[in-house]
Automatic annotation (TrEMBL):
Superkingdom to which the source organism belongs: Bacteria
Protein name stated in the entry: Nuclear transport factor 2 family protein
InterPro entries in the cross-refs: NTF2-like_dom_sf, SnoaL-like
Domain SnoaL-like: from-to ranges: 10-97
Protein's organism: Microbacterium schleiferi
Length: 120
């Protein structure tokens, strides 16, 4: 993997997410993918679970702020702004790529204004 390949993957992810293109999940993720919407959540396992999850037609803007890459492991920082209602998120995505360029393990670390960063 290189940063250009990661960038292309993120661009396609954004397009598929924006279009609610559930079949694109099969091009983005391996069959045995584990997709965690938070590091402590149970993973969505496999294409069908992610396809069912990807059904959010709310309009949004997304921008990639940075990509860090080590072999097949990438960390991507993205800023997402939903509209209707307005909500900003700053996310870190951990992406473990398979040799074929699809992601086999995805972990999202999402934060938003006002969210506590402590356990109290």
């Amino acid at each position: 993997m290189d940063t250009d390949a990661v960038g292309r993957w993120v661009t396609e992810y954004e397009r598929a997410w924006r279009d609610c293109d559930a079949p694109a999940v099969r091009d983005l993720f391996t069959e045995d993918v584990h997709y965690l919407t938070s590091p402590y959540e149970e993973p969505l396992a496999g294409h069908e679970a992610i396809e069912a999850f990807w059904n959010d037609p709310r309009p949004f803007d997304m921008g990639v702020e940075s990509v860090t890459l080590d072999g097949f492991h990438a960390v991507v920082r993205v800023r997402v702004n939903y509209r209707d209602p307005d909500q900003e998120y700053l996310d870190l995505w951990e992406l473990d790529f398979a040799p074929d360029g699809r992601v086999e393990h995805f972990v999202e670390w999402a934060y938003w204004p006002g969210k506590s960063f402590t356990a109290s």
